[in-house]
Write a structure and sequence with these properties.
The protein is an alpha/beta fold and about 475 residues long. It has 18 helices and 13 strands.
Length: about 475
């Protein structure tokens, strides 16, 4: 659900996040304040608002506790362009890998897609009218009003022969061209009858021939380490545009043709320059970049080798976070007011191992807590996208009803916490593995169980999982 940012107070932001994320109140509070400060900055005079930098955040905590989910839900809540990247896929200039500026280009692409979708919805009604007329033209060749033929004037053309492909017509009007089979004219009343049938859905399965862009002839190439292709606005995935946008004919049903034509009409009605300008402004003012695994590029003191490259990545990221202009194929993007949220487990390193300049650009640090038994119980039951709700809905599609009692859910929570403590702690992601193992047999035989109700009790959970939990070696591989 997207909500107008102006109507969201920090407390309301936290309440919205509570619908999907259990616990981590401190982290929610920090991001809510950071989001509200963006609105406050927009209300300041221009000369002052430019000086107010976003308060970037470092989230510290083990995997699966909600770091990424908090940032993603925050962006969905406000409709802000959001991008998640892993710090480990970037390398300093000169090494094989992606250059750090690509994160800004990727964020701009997200913004373009977001704004384009919104503007397309604004012109959907007009596009649907045009699509309907285009479908009628396909269904009734000859019903479309034709422009009047151009007749030669008396401006010196008399006595000359106009020829195309070896045939011609002299000034007297005689022609040696073969007759062309043109479709007979269709009356307006017939066209309106077909329009009525089209709107009633009676022609959905009728075949028509449409022209579509012949894409896929050239592979998209990702360019590495500071290449100039982006600046030249040349990408090999769009080479067809250089050759006039080649089209090909495709035979399909009216139902599918409507979607193809509607997309084309909406693209025609949306001003691409306006899309770029609105997207650039939204990215600069509201964009969020989530840099995961930032601890993997933290370099410890008095170490050489790979740590040199890690520090190089940090120094390349630094100007992006500090604020600079990045050239994209949609124009220059200023990163000065993009909100950066970094996250990492920091098991073998600590935030102070980052270079001091980068630490200074992330003034806010928040530690997320490991999940307990009670947290797992709430994760399984309370959120709008709770796992229990998901599996119940999935089985209902097969006509099977799952009934979880509270004791069974409590047992699942305890097993998740126990396995996390005895093996690798992967947080709430452990619940996905446990639920799959628990319901494996039911999922496999669901088509044969249609109409039945399957009670999931504590005994059922123990029967399916207890042996795995007790066998530590087996649990490491299965759970």
């Amino acid at each position: 659900m997207k909500v107008a940012l102006e109507t969201l107070t920090p407390a309301e932001i936290v309440r919205e996040l509570d619908k999907y994320i259990i616990g981590q109140e401190k982290a929610k509070k920090v991001v809510a304040i950071a989001l509200r400060n963006r609105l406050r900055r927009q209300r300041l005079p221009d000369e002052l608002s430019d000086e107010v930098a976003p308060k970037n955040i470092i989230m510290i905590g083990p995997t699966g506790v909600g770091k990424t989910e908090i940032a993603r839900r925050l962006s969905r809540l406000t409709g802000a362009p959001f991008l998640k990247v892993e710090a480990t896929k970037y390398t300093e200039v000169g090494y094989v890998g992606r250059d750090v500026e690509s994160m800004v280009r990727d964020l701009m692409s997200e913004g373009i897609a977001m704004v384009k979708l919104e503007l397309q919805e604004e012109v959907r009604v007009e596009a649907e009218k045009r699509t309907e007329d285009a479908l009628l033209d396909l269904l009734l060749p000859g019903s479309k009003p034709q422009p009047a033929p151009v007749r030669p004037t008396d401006g010196g053309t008399a006595g000359f022969t106009l020829s195309v492909g070896g045939t011609g017509e002299d000034a007297s009007g005689a022609s040696d061209a073969p007759e062309v089979n043109t479709p007979p004219a269709v009356s307006e009343s017939t066209r309106e009858k077909f329009r009525t049938m089209l709107r009633a859905g009676k022609l959905e399965d009728k075949d028509v021939e449409v022209q579509i862009s012949a894409g896929g002839g050239f592979p998209s190439i990702e360019v590495f380490s500071g290449s100039s292709f982006e600046e030249m606005d040349l990408n090999l995935g769009n080479l067809s545009n250089l050759f006039g946008g080649k089209k090909k004919k495709k035979r399909t049903t009216v139902k599918l043709a409507r979607d193809i034509l509607l997309q084309e009409e909406m693209d025609k009605l949306v001003d691409s320059d306006r899309v770029s300008e609105l997207a650039r402004r939204r990215v600069e003012e509201m964009g969020i970049i989530f840099i995961d695994e930032i601890d993997k590029v933290a370099s410890k003191e008095n170490r050489q080798g790979v740590d040199v490259s890690r520090e190089g990545v940090q120094r390349d990221i630094l100007p992006i976070v500090e604020g600079c202009k990045v050239n994209t194929k949609h124009g220059m993007v200023d990163t000065s007011h993009i909100l950066f949220i970094a996250a990492g487990a920091f098991h073998t390193s600590k935030p102070s191992d980052l270079i001091p300049e980068l630490q200074g650009r992330f003034p806010l640090r928040v530690e997320l807590e490991a999940l307990s038994n009670d947290d797992f119980f709430r994760i399984l039951t309370q959120p709008q996208n709770a796992l229990i709700k998901q599996y119940v809905a999935l089985m209902e599609t097969e006509g099977v009803t799952l009934e979880f009692d509270s004791e069974a859910i409590r047992e699942l929570s305890e097993i998740a916490a126990r396995v996390n403590s005895s093996t690798e702690n992967i947080g709430a992601r452990r619940l996905h593995t446990i639920m799959e193992v628990l319901l494996e047999e039911v999922s496999f035989t669901a088509p044969d169980l249609s109409g039945q109700t399957i009670p999931i009790t504590r005994e059922y959970v123990r029967q399916r999982l207890e042996d795995l939990v007790q066998d530590q070696d087996l649990a490491r591989y299965i759970l």
